[in-house]
Amino acid sequence: MTKTRTGLGPSLARRAVLLAALCEGLGIRTAGAATGLSNGLKLAYLPKQINNPYHVILGEGVMEAARELGAQARMLGPTNAQALAQEPFIQQLIAERLNAVILAANETVALLPKVRELSALGTKIVAVDADLATDARDLFINQASQEGVGRAQMQLMAKLMDGQGEFAILSANVTASNQNAWIYWMLQELRRPGYQNMKLSKVVYGNDDPVRSREQCMALLQNPNLRGIICPTTVGILASAEYVAASPFKGKVHVTGLGTPNQMRPFVKDGTVQAFQLWNPVDLGYLAAYAAASLSKGLITGKRGETFAAGRLGNYVVGAKGEVILGAPTTFDTSNIDRFNF
């Protein structure tokens, strides 16, 4: 992950409002004209939670690509990450007859009837961040391979703990397919030689809610043998870092997981968090929008081996089961965190 954004000054809450308001006026023709992707495309991004900082930043990438493509695009969605909170928004999109919808699904089963109804209208469905059933979407834009993320998280935890002691996992929702897949691969990695002195004590869920995540962190810390917490969610890692930073556990319990550099910078600088990982969510949204445009224009269909251009990110190849992978996660620590601004 080498490309970064600078100058992101407004607060995340204000940025979410601004993104949601960008409904109709993104008619700037630049790179889209050269790639054959422009001319009246209408796209929407439906995140898991519109006020989640991670999804706000991902939405910025969608909007950046839309401007280049000369497309109309907007971001809409629920203010909580409950399983069916996205359903009324999918119903709204069904009525709008868009070219493509970029969807980060909270729930991968209960939402399928509405998603399939949307797809049946000819709207291209691009899953991002969390996958859907392959017959309900055209492509899945994955931040990194699920195995790669899960194993990398466990390897980082082992390094921080020197391969010794108990750790816990603070996840998002129990139904979040990406979280569950990452945890599966964490456990597969834990079975490898070299981890025999590490023990997973518990997996808990903060529902991507700051208050609930903080409460779960506090409960985990009641275990006197706990030496680490993996939070594969940007909400969970921030809530945990905030609590540990002001507690007697600072310097004793390692907090790591998936977070954004701008959120985690103060905790890396003060020693609460030694290292954490993520990809660039701006790039993830940007890639998803270019994929949606290529699908809408018939340049690709989602079959394995197809290639498409993704603006400043270059060319990408569609993999097995319609999956496109952005790239490997990056580890952030004191040596590099100031080089990133998102």
What's the short story on this structure?
This protein is of the alpha/beta class. The chain has helices at 12-21, 31-35, 53-69, 87-96, 112-120, 146-161, 177-190, 210-220, 234-245, 261-269, 281-296; strands spanning 42-46, 72-75, 100-103, 124-128, 139-142, 165-171, 198-205, 226-231, 254-257, 276-278, 307-309, 315-317, 323-325, 330-332.
Tell me about this structure.
The protein has 342 residues and is an alpha/beta fold. Helices cover 38% and strands 18% of the residues. It contains eleven helices and 14 strands. It has helices at 12-21, 31-35, 53-69, 87-96, 112-120, 146-161, 177-190, 210-220, 234-245, 261-269, 281-296, and strands spanning 42-46, 72-75, 100-103, 124-128, 139-142, 165-171, 198-205, 226-231, 254-257, 276-278, 307-309, 315-317, 323-325, 330-332. The strands form four sheets. Strands 2-1-3-4-5-13 form a six-stranded parallel sheet, with helices on both faces. Strands 7-6-8-9 form a four-stranded parallel sheet, with helices on both faces. The chain is elongated, with a radius of gyration of 20 Å. 50% of the residues are buried.
Features:
342 residues; alpha/beta; 6-stranded parallel β-sheet; 38% helix
Distance between termini? 12 Å
Tell me the major beta sheet. Answer: 6 strands, parallel
Helix content, binned percent? 25-40%
Structural class: alpha/beta
